[in-house]
Design goal:
Length: about 400
């Protein structure tokens, strides 16, 4: 199916059910947990007596845990009721944050982050399947956008709040805050997610793995990984870039984070509205926009006033892309969505691991804090290339029918 030639059909739109909103509230907690470290890098580095780059590697370690944990938890819990899996994963996340708040060494905190990632990956995978199964095929992107809105709200509220708490009371207080929020999410899941397996499901590992024989799914996953790597390469080191290069006071960073989160919320809303009907147009617009903005940030960060504005624009573009990236994987997964959803989570976290690692290596090599967004631009060019290949494969398969 070529970009610009997607058929427009008349479809019946359905209301996104309340259970998706409840799941989005838990995603808000998990998103805060995953990325709040970007706002408290200096405090953690000072307290644990390690470098900023070392703390950045905690983000990569979390991502590695998600890469392994999401599919592993999907396989281990495949035959369990989805509600049971969601509850179990939230309990793991809460317990891990308590352990993190009490951690006395960098090594122990590294282990805690990996364990947290296992719980987070397992929750993400099953929550996405519950979300998609609650609506029809014509509303997948919109429903997934509602779920992902929890992540954008974590950018607007959770991460800035966690940054403020960490700067005021120490980074350990941020971990305690997330543990309490996780308990609230657990109560919501217990109250709203129905018991049982769902609509006549009888999942098997064989049917779930069969979908991976399709080359188009791997192209979709690769596009996701490269795109996310490019965005997180920038985001992981945005706080020190804003303070050291752009010259913003530390107290202004949470303000920028709130604005970036608002941009993300607008982006996921817009992406969700358009991706169901115009998936390729939406995706390519976001990929190209992200590439240009990442390059602009790297080249103009020292120009007064530029970096905060470009960062907010990047938050918008990043989440415009999220809806079509997620919806495409589910459209290719067919009747076996659980492991595909888990692997899609892993693909995002391949990017989350690769981006900070490459950014940290560039900083350690002396290339400066403006190098991560430039590396990000190169990675998103790779994502555009894979998406072009995928579009070509879609076109050939459509013509062959």
């Amino acid at each position: 199916m070529a970009c610009g030639t997607e058929p427009v059909t008349t479809v019946v739109r359905t209301r996104v059910p309340r259970v998706v909103t409840v799941l989005a509230l838990s995603i808000f907690v998990l998103g805060t947990s995953e990325f709040v470290i970007t706002g408290i890098l200096p405090e953690m580095a000072t307290d644990l007596r390690v470098s900023v780059s070392d703390i950045g590697y905690l983000i990569s370690a979390f991502a590695v845990g998600m890469i392994v944990g999401a599919p592993l938890m999907a396989v281990l819990t495949l035959r369990l009721p989805r509600r049971t899996t969601l509850v179990t994963m939230l309990v793991v996340v809460v317990a891990a944050h308590v352990a993190g708040a009490l951690a006395g060494s960098y090594a122990l905190l590294l282990v805690v982050r990996v364990v947290t990632a296992f719980g987070t990956g397992g929750f993400w995978a099953v929550a996405a399947v519950v979300t998609v199964s609650s609506v029809g095929p014509a509303d997948r992107a919109r429903a997934l956008a509602r779920l992902l809105a929890g992540l954008t709200v974590s950018n607007v509220v959770g991460i800035p709040l966690g940054t403020l708490v960490g700067q005021s009371f120490g980074w350990r207080a941020t971990f305690w805050m997330i543990a309490l929020l996780g308990l609230a999410g657990l109560v919501g899941v217990l109250a709203m997610v129905p018991r049982g397996r769902g609509r006549g499901e009888a999942p098997s590992l064989a049917s779930e793995t069969a979908v991976f024989r399709r080359g188009r799914l791997w192209l979709a996953l690769g596009t996701t990984a490269l795109y996310q790597a490019g965005m997180i390469a920038m985001l992981a080191y945005l706080t020190p870039l804003l303070i050291t290069v752009a010259g913003l006071p530390a107290a202004a960073v949470p303000v920028v984070q709130v604005a970036l989160g608002l941009g993300s919320l607008a982006g996921i809303t817009l992406g969700g509205r358009f991706a169901d009907r115009h998936l390729w147009r939406t995706l390519f617009a976001a990929l190209i926009g992200a590439t240009l903005l990442l390059a602009l940030l790297g080249l103009t960060a020292a120009v007064p006033g530029f970096a905060p504005v470009v960062a907010v624009a990047l938050g918008f573009v990043a989440f415009v892309a999220a809806a079509p990236l997620n919806a495409r994987v589910f459209s290719l997964a067919g009747a076996a969505p659980t492991l595909a959803s888990a692997t899609n989570t892993s693909a995002f976290n391949v990017g989350n691991s690769l981006g900070p690692a490459l950014g940290g290596l560039a900083i350690a090599a002396g290339w400066g804090l403006t190098s991560p967004p430039l590396i990000g631009a190169v990675l998103t060019v790779g994502a555009i290339g894979l998406a072009l290949v995928a579009r070509g494969v879609d076109r050939r398969e459509t013509l062959a029918r």
